[in-house]
Amino acid sequence: MKKILGIIFTAALIFTSCHDNIFENINNEVKLEKNGINGDGRIVRYKDSLVYCNGHIYYKTNESSNTTGLFNRQWVKVNATPGDKIDYVPSSTHFLAGGNGILFALTYTWYGDSSGVNSIKSKKIYYTKDTMSSSVEWKELSLPESLSGSGSIAVIFDNKAYDESNRKAYARIYDSTANSYSVYELLESGPVKVTDGTNGASATSISAVYFNGQTYFSPYYAMTANDKYIYYSKTVTNSSNHVSTSSIICCADGWGEFSTYKKVTPAADANPNQKQWYEYDENLKVYQLTSDTEPVSQKSYYSKSDSVSTGFRITSSASAPEEIHCNAGGILSLAATKNFLLIGTTGGLKRTELKENIPSADVSKFPNNGNKISEEYIFFVFALNPSANEGEDDEYCNTTIHGSISGSQDSWDDAGLYAYYKNHGTWNRDGTDDNSTNGN
């Protein structure tokens, strides 16, 4: 039996179980490429590159395949960060973040425990300012003593900004003096604390997104944005590494205080205006006090809560985020294109149409093999050009077998990084040109 260590990009590490027999490909219509990077990973933007890590680090140009005419075998492996090797177990990098023209890497040092399982000994942040190549110079980021405990660094992430000038990197780190976790912006000079409560920054933050000139933080990994809304889903990982998924996509356009509104059923003799009930204007997306002095049968009325909450909100109406119950299944990751949301789920890759920037409750089939590349967990989806229509530019996802492979319809050999290139026409494995490692 072969033990596989899987790093899942949620609130914490999730270890995959023992993996037994390798099953056949579930993709019957498209022959899979032999070269493809295996493992759990994600892509970040850095300078003129896309950078991917799954323990190892890889890079490729961020130019669209529509321009280069290139498809698979573009990724190049980067030299490892200078982490320690203990008991013959090499260190490995599992989180990246780009910001202020710097690429940060969170590297784990491992040791083999008495049961033969590799466990984390320490975590360190390294950084480089070099243009990406197979050999870049890594330096260890200096941390103050209060942030330097062996388990202090929970995760690093960036705000996913498309333009480099807006991109910032962050970490959630435990402060032994304050006895709490906080979010810190990562700079070459060291981490700078983000004031707790700033656009959602908290002790549980694990992701961020750039929206309308500001960075917003979230305890949920599934988070993306376009020019109109922040989209997120309330999937979390608890302390026992159990993934609790949500099928709801929330839409917000800011952070702050908001009220909640509840639909009421008026009695025939009710005076809606006197009761201070509200109507919802679909065009303006706001709740407005009704002027009706008697119920109108075609209208819906809402009562306003007495209490006020703080969080993501619809700013114009100071109301709770709009929630769409989507039939995609358990939502793990989101990426916005101009007309669709790409959705990574517990049952493969899905997409839902944006109608006036609001996600549909129904998923739409891909016109290619996107629905068939995996029936397993997809913790990462990525659109190279968020302003392009879905299918018009490069898109990526990472498939992960979560749990025992004996109960999976997917093959461990075929799990990993997948890409869609418009002029290639289908989703397929994506990797390096190293045939000796099958593209790893």
* Proportion of helical residues: under 10%
Tell me how many strands there are. Answer: 36
The coarse overall form would be globular
State which percent range the strand residues make up. 35-45%
What class do helices, strands and sheet pairing give?
A: mainly beta
Low-confidence stretches: 1-27
Report on the biggest sheet.
4 strands, antiparallel
- How many H/I helical runs? 1
The overall pLDDT average reads 89
- Terminal residue distance: 22 Å
CA-atom Rg in angstroms: 23 Å
Question: How are strands sequenced across the largest beta sheet?
Answer: 3-4-5-6
Descriptive report:
The relative contact order is 0.17. The protein contains 1 helix and 36 strands. A hairpin with a 3-residue loop joins strand 29 (331-336) and strand 30. It is an all-beta fold and 440 residues long. The longest helix has 4 residues, at 65-68. Mean pLDDT is 89; it is low at 1-27. The strands form 12 sheets. A 4-stranded antiparallel beta sheet has the order 3-4-5-6, with no helix packed on it. Strands 7-8-9-10 form a 4-stranded antiparallel beta sheet, with no helix packed on it. It has one helix at 65-68; strands at 2-3, 18-19, 42-46, 49-53, 57-61, 76-78, 92-99, 102-112, 118-128, 139-140, 153-158, 169-175, 180-187, 190-193, 207-211, 214-218, 223-225, 230-232, 236-237, 243-244, 248-252, 254-258, 261-264, 278-281, 286-289, 301-304, 309-313, 322-325, 331-336, 340-345, 348-355, 358-363, 377-383, 395-400, 417-420, 427-429.
